[in-house]
Every structure is written in C-alpha cells, then in structure tokens.
Design goal:
alpha/beta; Rossmann fold; four-stranded parallel beta sheet; 4 helices; 12% strand
C-alpha cells in the first residue's frame, strides 16, 4: 500500500484538511492509500479547519497537530507533498525513491469561513486528482495547475466515520 505524507508548517489547517480529503478520495475510488499529515512544528488544529471539514462530513475534531517524528516510519513514504512554501523549504531530504511534490495553497488562517471553504475545495480537487492518478497507474500531478477539475461538493454530507 502506498504511503502519503502531507507536510505543512504547523499541521493546523491545510495539511489536516488535505489528509482528510486525500483519505476520502482514496476510499471513494477503492484505492488503498496510507495517508498522514505532519508539520515542521506542532501547534493545534484550527477550529475553522474543523468547522469547514464538518460541513462536508469529515470530522477533524479529534485530530492533533504533530511533527514528522510523531508519524510512524517517517522516512518510508512513497509520496511527500508540501502544501505551503515554508514547509517546502524546511522539508528534510527523502530517499530518491520518494516522489516529492509541492502544491502551495493560501493560508486561510485569519480569514472568513468562505476563504477556508475555498482552500478546502482547492485541496479537494488536488488530492482527488492525486488519488485518481495513483489508482490509474499514472504519475501524480506535478503541480496544482495540472489537476483536472473534479466535483468536490458532495450531494449530502456523509456520517462521520464513513
């Protein structure tokens, strides 16, 4: 089973949302994908991230912010994706067999909920495209611009735990 790490600075918003969205995208298409997120520093998961993810049926309320050293086997990821520029700069070196991607997303912190929703939906497009590429045996997108548009708005929120 491939392993994916999504890395951000504080593991408080973008990487947390991306983890949930990547996991859901993989499940929706029947792809076995082991998904983790971490930060270069640990803080706390932002309430606005929890709120906008709950709107689409993903529960982040029990999530905690963690560093790379808090995830199992931190040096054995098949894919490492940074979602902010500072994490890309601070990302440690991985073996040559690890596929590295940088998908920079705007930090929604301090913004209105609509800004959080926009970032959530952009993350949904990107990580759905990522999962679909893996499932099809294609290379994962090189950048955000390479991700084809997909519907990231579920018709009805799924119950937590599905």
């Amino acid at each position: 089973m491939p392993r994916l790490l999504i890395l951000c600075t504080h593991n408080s918003a973008r990487s947390q949302m991306a983890e949930g969205l990547a996991r859901r995208a993989a499940q929706d298409i029947g792809l076995d994908l082991d998904v983790f997120s971490a930060g270069t520093q640990a803080t706390a998961v932002k309430p606005d991230a929890v709120a906008v993810m709950a709107e689409i049926g993903l529960d982040l309320s029990a999530n905690t912010s963690k560093t790379l050293f808090d995830v199992p086997d931190p040096w054995t990821f098949d894919y490492v994706v940074t979602v902010c520029d500072s994490a890309a700069e601070a990302c440690p070196a991985y073996p040559a067999t690890t596929v590295m991607r940088h998908y920079p997303f705007v930090d929604p912190s301090g913004g209105i909920l609509e800004r959080w929703r926009t970032v959530r939906d952009q993350l949904g497009v990107q990580f759905t495209s990522f999962a679909r590429a893996l499932a099809a045996g294609r290379a994962v997108p090189e950048s955000y611009a390479d991700a084809p548009p997909v519907d990231t708005h579920p018709v009805a929120a799924q119950p937590v735990g599905t």
